Amino acid sequence: MEDILKQIDFNKSGGLVTAIAVDDATGDILMVAYMNEESLRLTLEQGEAVYWSRSRKKLWHKGEQSGNVQRVKAIYTDCDADAILLRIEQVGIAACHTGKRSCFYRKLENGGFVEVGEQIFDPEKVYAK
Amino acid sequence: MEDILKQIDFNKSGGLVTAIAVDDATGDILMVAYMNEESLRLTLEQGEAVYWSRSRKKLWHKGEQSGNVQRVKAIYTDCDADAILLRIEQVGIAACHTGKRSCFYRKLENGGFVEVGEQIFDPEKVYAK
Question: What is the CATH number of domain A2-95?
Fold first, then answer.
């Protein structure tokens, strides 16, 4: 475990690396988030994605509230070891807190961003509790 | 142009947003880099990916040295508008300065990272000039 963590460069961006979550079955990009060393350690230990929330400044076990956890199927790092790619199984299909399948649901068209992509759940129902 | 730039949140990470380059034909993730407002403006104007190099602290027209430019086919942003996904045509096939097709060529297997992915060019020949 420590050997793996040592190979990732957490020093470039305030202790964080960029983490991209990709649907293992389809290859679709579901979201981008950030990890510090502890969140990568927990991800490796638990087999589910744990990120560092930059807005809440705390560890974020993805799906802890919605139940839509991400089961990790494979992990890659890039040439300079400051980004991580997770191939995951997205429980509940939707990765985005808006209820969209992917967070990248706004596409630039004719000079503006328009909504695309599947709406899987109603966020007001899922996060109301 | 200014309307588009205003919709992106450059304030969360020192003026930068994360930018993911995806092969438009295959959906494969080729690399992750960063953009400031000026690099996104140039990307929109030129139709080729221009990033901000965090290590060199300057604008980086991807492929300026190798010729392996990225022709932008579509642009998406995510739910909180602090990440950008570019669907691109990768001239020269390889996106990585190592000569690999994708920068994410190291896969975690049996407790260590092993090299996977196609080697497209020899970096010593391409960057020797």
Answer: 3.10.20.810
Task: Look at B29 and A85 and tell me if their CB atoms are within 8 Å.
Answer: yes
Domain residue ranges of chain B, discontinuous segments joined by +:
2-126
Do A79 and B85 lie within an 8 Å CB cutoff?
Answer: no
Compute the C-alpha angle B16/A16/A115, nearest 5°. Answer: 50
pLDDT tens sequence across B65-100? 889 999 999 999 999 999 999 999 999 999 999 999
Residue in this structure with the two tokens 């196609």, named with its chain if needed = B118
A12, A83, A104 ranked by CB distance to B78: nearest: A104
Contact list, B77 vs chain A (CB under 8 Å): 104, 106, 108, 113
CB A60 within 8 A of CB A42: no
Closest residue of chain A to B22, computed from CA coordinates: A29
What is the residue type of A24? D
CATH number for the domain running over B2-126: 3.10.20.810
DSSP B40-58: HHHHHHHSB-EEEETTTTE
Structure tokens at B34: 């960063």
Complex ipTM: 0.93
Residue for token pair 């190592």: B98
Query: Model pTM?
Result: 0.94
